[in-house]
């Protein structure tokens, strides 16, 4: 039995999550997998109903489920609320509750969408990268932090970049394990030439590799060089491991190689569970029009099957079906090109499910 907590959230989050649930039910029937779905309010919709972006009860449910599938949160309706009760606070609370320390962001260039990239086709053709970003430590959480006034009247802003060996070890293991299931190459990104904490990062990653994953090739790059090589030779990367801040930047850079926000899934793996969600937001500009691209959510479901349930074959079926639908020329508005067939969110979902049934 696979217990799933479904948090559609706001805006197009609801529309794309509907497609994913429909697809998971189809896969469940096909492979006799017993999924138990529970749906709850989250983000703006939870604020409207309960006054908070996530209730204690939903956090408890998240912890007791095997995986959480999330849509997206936010929208203009809640933009003027105090920071503490904004929809995004729900995301942070959920990540904290599940201790989601490893954020996984794949960037895959599909042959039929190669022209969507801003880079030349021959550079991005066949790109298939997984960025593993440390998510709960580093400079975004380190103390001391804040802005203080100096005796001179001038202000001083401080943030602290710190990592313990344990924090580096656990995210390294996730990255090495993923690399082992893929092309067995890991690139660890740091700034060990300048920062002491990054020297510890490099030393620790190297030790984990040597002692536990000798079969995975390990490369170390300084972050400035990594940013450059990512657009120069993206095909040479398999798995990229980075701390919270460098990973934040590099995962967006690698996403841009693919060219379309509506195609990007993500996973946040923690010690207390895992969250799967599209990279995009709630897109209020297209909400309720049935034109959102559901593929980022669909591929997030595929990641869930792979990383939370070890159902690689079912994840692979989703991936193959998405490729086939794209090869046949079906496109949602965001990835539409002349000569293709434009379809809406629900229709794209139906086409993917039809392909799954055929495999
Ligand atoms: P967004 O990702 O929602 O939208 C950016 C642009 O991309 C919009 O033009 C939108 O129409 C388009 N787009 C996004 N996803 C698409 C899809 N699946 N199909 C077709 N087009 C798509 O980012 P934004 O406009 O900056 O933010 C809107 C709201 O979403 C804000 O409230 C923001 O805080 C929130 N947000 C939430 C998350 C999250 O839940 N993880 C992430 C980013 C933004």
Structure commentary:
With 359 residues, this protein is α/β, with parallel strands linked by helices. The chain folds into two domains: 1-101 and 271-359, Isopropylmalate Dehydrogenase, CATH 3.40.718.10; 107-261, Isopropylmalate Dehydrogenase (3-Layer(aba) Sandwich). It has twelve helices and 14 strands. The chain has helices spanning 12-31, 44-50, 56-64, 87-97, 121-124, 165-181, 196-212, 223-232, 244-258, 295-307, 312-327, 345-358, and strands at residues 2-9, 35-39, 67-72, 100-108, 128-134, 142-149, 155-160, 185-190, 217-222, 239-242, 265-270, 274-278, 330-331, 341-342. The strands form three sheets. Strands 2-1-3-12-11-4-5-10-8-9 form a ten-stranded mixed sheet, with helices on both faces. Strands 6-7 form a two-stranded antiparallel ribbon. Helix 8 runs parallel beside helix 9. It starts with a strand and ends with a helix. The model has no long low-confidence stretch (mean pLDDT 96). The structure holds nicotinamide-adenine-dinucleotide. Nicotinamide-adenine-dinucleotide binds next to helix 1 and helix 4. Nicotinamide-adenine-dinucleotide (NAD) binds at residues 12, 16, 72-75, 88, 91, 261-262, 277, 280-286, 292-293, 296, 334.
């Amino acid at each position: 039995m696979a217990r799933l907590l479904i948090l559609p959230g706001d805006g197009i989050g609801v529309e794309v999550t509907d497609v994913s649930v429909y697809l998971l039910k189809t896969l469940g029937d096909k492979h006799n997998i017993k999924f138990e779905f529970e749906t709850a309010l989250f983000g703006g919709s939870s604020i409207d109903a309960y006054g908070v972006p996530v209730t204690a009860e939903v956090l408890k449910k998240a912890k007791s489920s095997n995986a959480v599938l999330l849509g997206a949160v936010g929208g203009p309706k809640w933009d003027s609320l105090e920071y503490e009760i904004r929809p995004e606070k729900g995301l942070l609370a959920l990540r904290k509750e599940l201790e989601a320390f490893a954020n996984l962001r794949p960037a895959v260039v599909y042959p039929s969408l190669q022209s969507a990239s801003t880079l030349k086709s021959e550079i991005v053709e066949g790109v298939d990268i997984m960025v593993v970003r440390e998510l709960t430590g580093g400079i975004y959480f380190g103390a001391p932090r804040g802005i203080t006034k100096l005796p001179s009247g001038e202000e001083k802003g401080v943030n602290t970049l710190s990592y313990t060996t344990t924090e580096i070890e656990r995210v390294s293991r996730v990255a090495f394990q993923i690399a082992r299931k893929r092309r067995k190459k890991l690139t660890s990104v740091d700034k060990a030439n300048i920062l002491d904490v990054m020297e510890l990062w490099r030393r620790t990653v190297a030790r984990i590799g040597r002692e536990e994953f000798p079969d995975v090739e390990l490369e170390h790059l300084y972050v400035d060089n990594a940013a450059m090589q990512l657009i120069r030779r993206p095909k040479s990367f398999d798995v990229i491991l980075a701390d919270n801040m460098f990973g934040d930047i590099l995962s967006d850079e690698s996403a841009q190689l693919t060219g379309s926000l509506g195609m990007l899934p993500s996973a946040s793996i923690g010690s207390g569970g895992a969250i799967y969600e599209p990279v995009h937001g709630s897109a209020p500009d297209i909400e309720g029009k049935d034109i959102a691209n559901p593929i980022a959510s669909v591929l997030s479901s595929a990641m869930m099957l792979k990383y939370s349930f070890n159902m690689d074959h079912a994840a692979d079926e989703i991936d193959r079906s998405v490729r086939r639908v794209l090869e046949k020329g079906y496109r949602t508005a965001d990835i539409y090109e002349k000569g293709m067939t434009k379809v809406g969110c629900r229709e794209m979902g139906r086409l993917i499910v039809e392909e799954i049934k055929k495999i």
